[in-house]
């Protein structure tokens, strides 16, 4: 169960909200860089509103991660981010595989297999055609971002 | 790789704060949780702690006998970051030395790519040294490189991860 917790004090307002981009996100154990960027940016904005000195409110880990995901997000628009998760979720991918593909955005089937060799291992149902379709669907999002 | 985890931590509230009831007490617990989260930095299992995303529940407090403080078990969800052996990721070049390149990826400050793991690249000395291959592809400071993580290590004392990388593989190298 997720709570919305509003906490006030004379100095600041804490806002915790459950951030749902799409139903799959609830069950997600791995997150793509673009998803993390949206979460961390929102957190940072909240801190800026609350404090004169937001930089000192966040840990080094937070700051470095934010810089990283801002640089390495292929998708910036929240709707696009949602669509990427939605499209990749249609294929039988492990969480980890889904995120590597969403992060690295391979352009060819060959590249996709090189990035995530496990999608072609014995017993998996992905043929080249399915992978090709997946990549085409992803590239369409990029065009309309 | 960024991970979403659900954790249960014990948050300790000093007896002085316990006069507060309801929302004020809840706030004290949350504030303390966030402080603990920030200070903890990282663990071997979960990686680096980034942010608390949701507060899921606060259990009943238990009084600690000798101090009078109260311990609250708090269940929450958070974001962490960890790198894995076999993972392919993009990192930024931080430092170039004769025998290899040091890269950074998010909170991980120390990924080492040895010259032996990028055999078609050669060190080019100079004021701004680089590595370069026959096709004139360059590896220089601040640029992005796609690499494979071939080993990781957690340093308990410093609470940080280090890794060793390779470019030997298709579609790896400067981005």
TrEMBL record, chain A:
<dbReference type="GO" id="GO:0000166">
    <property type="term" value="F:nucleotide binding"/>
</dbReference>
<dbReference type="InterPro" id="IPR006590">
    <property type="entry name" value="RNA_pol_Rpb4/RPC9_core"/>
</dbReference>
<dbReference type="GO" id="GO:0005634">
    <property type="term" value="C:nucleus"/>
</dbReference>
<keyword id="KW-0539">Nucleus</keyword>
<dbReference type="Pfam" id="PF03874">
    <property type="entry name" value="RNA_pol_Rpb4"/>
</dbReference>
<dbReference type="GO" id="GO:0006352">
    <property type="term" value="P:DNA-templated transcription initiation"/>
</dbReference>
<protein>
    <recommendedName>
        <fullName>RNA polymerase Rpb4/RPC9 core domain-containing protein</fullName>
    </recommendedName>
</protein>
<dbReference type="GO" id="GO:0030880">
    <property type="term" value="C:RNA polymerase complex"/>
</dbReference>
<dbReference type="InterPro" id="IPR010997">
    <property type="entry name" value="HRDC-like_sf"/>
</dbReference>
<dbReference type="InterPro" id="IPR045222">
    <property type="entry name" value="Rpb4-like"/>
</dbReference>
<dbReference type="InterPro" id="IPR005574">
    <property type="entry name" value="Rpb4/RPC9"/>
</dbReference>
<feature type="domain" description="RNA polymerase Rpb4/RPC9 core">
    <location>
        <begin position="23"/>
        <end position="145"/>
    </location>
</feature>
<dbReference type="InterPro" id="IPR038324">
    <property type="entry name" value="Rpb4/RPC9_sf"/>
</dbReference>
<comment type="similarity">
    <text>Belongs to the eukaryotic RPB4 RNA polymerase subunit family.</text>
</comment>
Automatic annotation (TrEMBL), chain B:
<dbReference type="GO" id="GO:0003697">
    <property type="term" value="F:single-stranded DNA binding"/>
</dbReference>
<dbReference type="GO" id="GO:0055029">
    <property type="term" value="C:nuclear DNA-directed RNA polymerase complex"/>
</dbReference>
<dbReference type="InterPro" id="IPR012340">
    <property type="entry name" value="NA-bd_OB-fold"/>
</dbReference>
<comment type="function">
    <text>DNA-dependent RNA polymerase which catalyzes the transcription of DNA into RNA using the four ribonucleoside triphosphates as substrates.</text>
</comment>
<dbReference type="InterPro" id="IPR045113">
    <property type="entry name" value="Rpb7-like"/>
</dbReference>
<comment type="similarity">
    <text>Belongs to the eukaryotic RPB7/RPC8 RNA polymerase subunit family.</text>
</comment>
<keyword id="KW-0240">DNA-directed RNA polymerase</keyword>
<keyword id="KW-0539">Nucleus</keyword>
<dbReference type="InterPro" id="IPR036898">
    <property type="entry name" value="RNA_pol_Rpb7-like_N_sf"/>
</dbReference>
<dbReference type="InterPro" id="IPR005576">
    <property type="entry name" value="Rpb7-like_N"/>
</dbReference>
<dbReference type="Pfam" id="PF03876">
    <property type="entry name" value="SHS2_Rpb7-N"/>
</dbReference>
<feature type="domain" description="RNA polymerase Rpb7-like N-terminal">
    <location>
        <begin position="18"/>
        <end position="68"/>
    </location>
</feature>
<dbReference type="GO" id="GO:0006352">
    <property type="term" value="P:DNA-templated transcription initiation"/>
</dbReference>
<keyword id="KW-0804">Transcription</keyword>
<protein>
    <recommendedName>
        <fullName>DNA-directed RNA polymerase subunit</fullName>
    </recommendedName>
</protein>
<dbReference type="GO" id="GO:0003727">
    <property type="term" value="F:single-stranded RNA binding"/>
</dbReference>
């Amino acid at each position: 169960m997720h709570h919305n917790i509003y906490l006030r004090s004379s100095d600041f307002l804490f806002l915790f909200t459950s951030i749902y981009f799409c139903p799959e996100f609830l069950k997600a154990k791995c997150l793509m860089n673009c998803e993390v960027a949206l979460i961390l940016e929102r957190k940072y904005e909240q801190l800026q509103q609350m404090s004169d000195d937001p930089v000192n409110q966040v840990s080094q880990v937070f700051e470095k991660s934010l810089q990283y995901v801002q640089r390495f997000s292929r998708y910036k628009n929240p709707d696009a981010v949602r669509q990427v998760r939605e499209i990749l979720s249609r294929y039988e991918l492990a969480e980890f595989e889904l995120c590597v593909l969403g992060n690295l955005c391979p352009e060819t089937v060959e590249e996709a297999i090189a990035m995530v060799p496990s999608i072609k291992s014995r017993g998996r149902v992905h043929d080249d055609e399915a992978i090709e379709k997946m990549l085409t669907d992803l590239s369409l999002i990029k065009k309309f971002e | 790789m960024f991970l979403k985890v659900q954790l249960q931590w014990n948050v300790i509230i000093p007896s002085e704060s316990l006069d507060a009831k309801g929302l004020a007490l809840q706030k004290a617990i949350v504030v303390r949780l966030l402080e603990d989260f920030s200070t903890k930095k990282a663990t071997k299992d979960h990686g680096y702690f980034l942010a608390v995303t949701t507060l899921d529940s606060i259990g009943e407090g238990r009084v600690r006998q000798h101090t009078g403080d109260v311990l609250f078990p708090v269940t929450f969800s958070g974001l962490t970051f960890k790198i894995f052996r076999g993972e392919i990721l993009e990192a930024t070049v931080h430092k170039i030395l004769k025998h290899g390149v040091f890269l950074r990826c998010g909170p991980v400050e120390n990924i080492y790519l040895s010259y032996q793991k990028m055999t078609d690249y050669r060190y080019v000395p100079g004021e701004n040294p680089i590595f370069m291959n026959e096709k004139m592809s360059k590896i220089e400071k601040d640029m992005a490189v796609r690499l494979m993580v071939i080993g990781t290590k957690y340093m308990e004392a410093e609470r940080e991860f280090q890794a060793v990388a390779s470019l030997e593989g298709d579609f790896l190298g400067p981005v």
